[in-house]
Amino acid sequence: MIENRALFTIFGSFFTLIGGFLLIAAIMTKSAPNSETYTLLSLAVMSFCLSYLAPQYGQKDERIRMIREKGMFFSGLAFLIYSFLLTTTLSLDLIFLTAIEAINVLIALMISTLFISMVVLAKRY
């Protein structure tokens, strides 16, 4: 299990470095970050969350099963809220996104929400 934690931490650091580099490049050019930057940063969040959850996932018990189920429930509920807010802001012309940018933002939000909710639930139960 220790090697899994170390591997996930290395992946998280790698994704953070790449995402940070892309953010700094966007700030230096005074433009909006590339939409894939959000996905890379959410993959960093996922890797760090998995490094925390790796020892607990080694156990196949009721607690881990409940954490997974509740995490999926909360992320599904969050997806409905994210979709509603994104659709509303796009239809009211409050923000202007292409379809690819909107999908990348939704993907980044879903990845982050799922794994952060699992970490919160693991700490709670």
UniProtKB/TrEMBL annotation:
Keywords: Membrane, Transmembrane, Transmembrane helix
Transmembrane helix recorded as keyword: yes
Protein name: Permease
Lineage: Bacteria, Bacillati, Bacillota, Bacilli, Bacillales
Transmembrane segments: 7-29, 35-53, 73-96, 102-122
